[in-house]
Every structure is written in structure tokens, then in C-alpha cells.
């Protein structure tokens, strides 16, 4: 019997690019990929991917409206779950963006970049949203980092960044005007602020590692 990875479709964000990347790395592995908001399919899946892009309040509202929220919370308690971009921010306690509560699965908060008037080393202004490639420092070893060199480049698009309530939950850090957490991990949960699906071969390697991770 084939195993299933559920990519949660709640009508927001980077669903197509995430699902295509997961389908690509799942080929030949024995996994089926289900793009779904059906709670029963999410509950039956072996592992779950939670994408997200746009305003966090909208993402949280649409996740609840889709009927998938409770199934995602159940999945986060029992099976490997990967959050991507706003999908990572949603796992934390709270976001400054429109004063939005998160799912509270990992202690932490989401804050807006305050870089007005700041200059980068080359003399250019910091732009918000940040759009581009950053080196990611692996704060600690983790199976989802397997085979990915420390300080590798990953692609970011975001105006808000995460701060964790406890350093033990920080799995990756990067710099854009300040050092901030760009990957979090706890038990069976791993999540990234950057977009692995837009990060070439190393991003696909991260998705592949997630498929084979046994927390």
C-alpha cells in the first residue's frame, strides 16, 4: 500500500510550486501526494506539508474556513509536519501582522522588519519585503538538513520574521538587517521561512529529507 503525503490546500499562497516540488521528490519512493483540505485525507496521511504565502491573518482564517485546521493540529501532534513560509509563521504563538494569533505549536512570535533608513554593506537600502537569496546557518543538526551544507543559499520572500521563545527550537538562522530564526523544529515538526521549492537542488533535497525523516 502506498503511503501518502498531504499538501494542505486551504486556498492560500504557494500551493502549486510546493506541491510540484513534493511530487517531484516523491517519484519512485512509494509515496502518493494528495493536495487536499479534506480532514479525513489529512488524518490518513503519513506526513503533512503546510504551505503559506500572503497575510498571516488571511491564512489563519482560510485554514479554519477550509475545515482543515483541526486535522492539521492533530497531524502536528502525531506525524511529521513541514511548514513553509507563512506555514512556518502559523505554527508560532502570535504575529504582529494584524495582531494575529497563531496555532501555538512552537513558542515564538512573528515581527515586522523595521529597516527604514538602514543601508546594506554595498550602500543600498534594505527593501521590505525581502526578496532574494540568503545563506542559512544550521543552528543545530537535524535529519532534514542531511546532506545540505551549512551556510547554503535559500530563497526568501517575506516582510515578517520569527523569534523563537526558546533557542532549542531554532533550527536555522540567517541575516537581513539582523540575525533571525528562519527554520524551527520541535519533535515531529520542521518548518522554514524560506521557500525550498524555489531554492534549486538543495531545496529539493530538503523536501526529500522530509519524506524520509522518522522522528
TrEMBL record:
Catalytic activity entry: 5-[(5-phospho-1-deoxy-D-ribulos-1-ylimino)methylamino]-1-(5-phospho-beta-D-ribosyl)imidazole-4-carboxamide + L-glutamine = D-erythro-1-(imidazol-4-yl)glycerol 3-phosphate + 5-amino-1-(5-phospho-beta-D-ribosyl)imidazole-4-carboxamide + L-glutamate + H(+); L-glutamine + H2O = L-glutamate + NH4(+)
Assigned keywords, A-Z: Amino-acid biosynthesis, Cytoplasm, Glutamine amidotransferase, Histidine biosynthesis, Hydrolase, Lyase
Primary localisation category: cytoplasm
Example of a GO MF term: lyase activity
Complexes and interactors: Heterodimer of HisH and HisF.
Ranges of residues in domain Glutamine amidotransferase: 7-210
Listed PANTHER family: IMIDAZOLE GLYCEROL PHOSPHATE SYNTHASE SUBUNIT HISH (PTHR42701), IMIDAZOLE GLYCEROL PHOSPHATE SYNTHASE SUBUNIT HISH 1 (PTHR42701:SF2)
Record-linked HAMAP family: HisH (MF_00278)
Top-rank lineage group of the source organism: Bacteria
The name this protein goes by in its record: Imidazole glycerol phosphate synthase subunit HisH
Keyword Calcium: no
Described purpose of this protein according to its UniProt entry: IGPS catalyzes the conversion of PRFAR and glutamine to IGP, AICAR and glutamate. The HisH subunit catalyzes the hydrolysis of glutamine to glutamate and ammonia as part of the synthesis of IGP and AICAR. The resulting ammonia molecule is channeled to the active site of HisF.
Gene: hisH
Associated pathway: Amino-acid biosynthesis; L-histidine biosynthesis; L-histidine from 5-phospho-alpha-D-ribose 1-diphosphate: step 5/9
Provenance organism: Pelomonas caseinilytica
Active-site residues annotated for this sequence: 85 (nucleophile), 195, 197
Subcellular location field: Cytoplasm
Enzyme Commission number, as recorded: 4.3.2.10, 3.5.1.2
Amino acid at each position: 500500500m502506498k503511503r501518502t503525503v498531504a499538501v494542505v490546500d486551504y486556498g492560500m499562497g504557494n500551493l502549486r510550486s510546493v506541491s510540484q516540488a513534493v511530487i517531484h521528490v516523491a517519484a519512485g519512493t512509494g509515496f502518493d501526494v494528495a493536495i487536499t483540505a479534506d480532514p479525513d485525507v489529512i488524518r490518513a496521511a503519513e506526513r503533512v506539508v503546510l504551505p503559506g504565502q500572503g497575510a498571516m491573518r488571511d491564512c489563519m482564517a482560510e485554514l479554519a474556513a477550509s475545515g482543515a485546521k483541526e486535522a492539521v493540529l492533530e497531524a502536528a501532534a502525531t506525524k511529521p509536519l513541514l511548514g513553509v513560509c507563512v506555514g512556518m509563521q502559523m505554527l508560532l504563538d502570535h504575529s504582529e501582522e494584524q495582531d494575529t494569533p497563531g496555532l501555538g505549536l512552537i513558542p515564538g512570535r512573528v515581527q515586522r522588519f523595521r529597516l527604514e533608513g538602514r543601508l546594506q554593506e554595498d550602500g543600498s537600502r534594505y527593501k521590505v519585503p525581502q526578496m532574494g537569496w540568503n545563506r542559512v546557518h544550521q543552528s543545530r543538526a537535524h535529519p532534514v538538513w542531511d546532506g545540505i551544507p551549512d551556510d547554503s543559499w535559500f530563497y526568501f520572500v517575506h516582510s515578517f520574521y520569527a523569534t523563537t521563545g526558546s533557542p532549542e527550537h531554532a533550527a536555522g538562522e540567517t541575516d537581513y538587517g539582523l540575525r533571525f530564526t528562519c527554520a524551527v523544529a520541535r519533535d515531529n515538526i520542521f518548518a522554514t521561512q524560506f521557500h525550498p521549492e524555489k531554492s534549486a537542488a538543495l531545496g529539493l533535497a530538503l523536501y526529500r529529507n522530509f519524506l524520509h525523516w522518522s522522528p
